[in-house]
């Protein structure tokens, strides 16, 4: 029996297609995404929650669900396509201008999962405060890396930047930023040694009338000030010693017993040089004005106490250095 040309070629074509498919698979470390399109090469990392996550080697469409990671993404030079909501002044003007047109995918209370899905992200950065049910939904959209927002390591803001750097394959950039920041602190400690030596420092914030917020040494601003050579106010440390995190809301009436021993006080401001209304009200009280540091003229803005990344930290160092130049 004579086989037709089509009957002979069809099996050969099928074998050729299969071979080509096999070769294509061997030549790429990529994977097929849920939409059926070939994705870029991937790498496996372990996130802050201990999950092994397969993430792109070079992510191009990152969604950040919280502004703390948003700033890290910006600092590291990664492309951001979606972001968490943030208040005016939570970032420097430079960053706000840069990310002003990036879609917001959260409210104050929840992640808008459908908005995230519409952006087709190749990496989602979720804080460790995200609920399990939301994480499950997000993992149906793309790789989810959980990073540390709250917990025992909250004060270690550099760790959060490092986690985002790990997720986005920007560890070298993180190390560069860290080295630059450490050198700046060392240079300031040397330059202002005579001004800082023997001085105790305290940090104050306020969120409501008739109360102020005290911060202990083991907080984010502590990582900025103590390497410069300041010692922390013993009274402020004592005021928060029994708290799970070294911070506490205190009645204005007690401010003398919490910050009375500080030689220098830094008060919280926005990243754009504005003092919030509650802090302004606190600073106008006679109790505040009678503090030793305030009467000496050693009362300065510092920026935010919740440091999101190196832009935040360097802005605060700018404010601290401005204060050091005026310190008496």
From TrEMBL:
<keyword id="KW-0813">Transport</keyword>
<feature type="region of interest" description="Disordered">
    <location>
        <begin position="29"/>
        <end position="55"/>
    </location>
</feature>
<dbReference type="InterPro" id="IPR051313">
    <property type="entry name" value="Bact_iron-sidero_bind"/>
</dbReference>
<keyword id="KW-0732">Signal</keyword>
<protein>
    <submittedName>
        <fullName>ABC transporter substrate-binding protein</fullName>
    </submittedName>
</protein>
<feature type="domain" description="Fe/B12 periplasmic-binding">
    <location>
        <begin position="61"/>
        <end position="328"/>
    </location>
</feature>
<feature type="signal peptide">
    <location>
        <begin position="1"/>
        <end position="24"/>
    </location>
</feature>
<dbReference type="InterPro" id="IPR002491">
    <property type="entry name" value="ABC_transptr_periplasmic_BD"/>
</dbReference>
<dbReference type="GO" id="GO:0030288">
    <property type="term" value="C:outer membrane-bounded periplasmic space"/>
</dbReference>
<dbReference type="Pfam" id="PF01497">
    <property type="entry name" value="Peripla_BP_2"/>
</dbReference>
<comment type="similarity">
    <text>Belongs to the bacterial solute-binding protein 8 family.</text>
</comment>
<dbReference type="GO" id="GO:1901678">
    <property type="term" value="P:iron coordination entity transport"/>
</dbReference>
């Amino acid at each position: 029996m004579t086989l037709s040309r089509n009957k002979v070629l069809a099996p050969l074509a099928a074998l050729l297609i299969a071979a080509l498919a096999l070769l294509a698979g061997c030549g790429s470390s990529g994977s097929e995404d849920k939409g059926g399109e070939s994705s870029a090469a991937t790498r496996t990392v372990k996130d802050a929650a201990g999950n092994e996550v397969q993430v792109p080697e070079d992510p191009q469409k990152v969604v950040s669900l919280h502004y703390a990671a948003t700033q890290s993404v910006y600092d590291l030079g990664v492309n951001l396509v979606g972001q968490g909501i943030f208040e005016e002044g939570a970032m420097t003007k430079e960053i706000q201008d840069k990310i002003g047109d990036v879609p917001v995918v959260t409210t104050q209370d929840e992640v808008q999962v459908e908005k995230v899905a519409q952006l087709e992200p190749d990496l989602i950065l979720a804080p460790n405060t995200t609920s399990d049910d939301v994480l499950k939904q997000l993992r149906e959209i793309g790789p989810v890396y959980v990073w540390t927002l709250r917990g025992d390591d909250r004060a270690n803001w550099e760790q959060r930047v490092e986690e985002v750097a790990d997720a986005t394959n920007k560890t070298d950039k993180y190390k560069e930023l860290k080295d630059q920041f450490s050198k700046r602190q060392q240079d300031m400690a040397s330059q202002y040694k005579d001004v800082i030596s023997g001085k105790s420092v305290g940090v104050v914030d306020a969120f409501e009338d008739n109360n102020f917020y005290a911060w202990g040494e083991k907080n984010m601003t502590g990582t900025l000030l103590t390497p410069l050579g300041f010692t922390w106010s013993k009274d402020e440390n004592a005021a928060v010693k029994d708290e799970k995190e070294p911070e506490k809301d205190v009645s204005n009436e007690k401010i003398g017993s919490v910050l009375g021993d500080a030689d220098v006080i830094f008060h919280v401001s926005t990243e754009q040089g504005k003092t919030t209304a509650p802090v302004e009200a606190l600073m106008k009280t006679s109790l505040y004005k009678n503090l030793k540091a305030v009467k000496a003229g050693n009362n300065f803005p510092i920026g935010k106490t919740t440091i999101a990344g190196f832009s935040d930290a360097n802005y605060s160092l700018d404010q601290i250095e401005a204060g050091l130049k005026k310190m008496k």
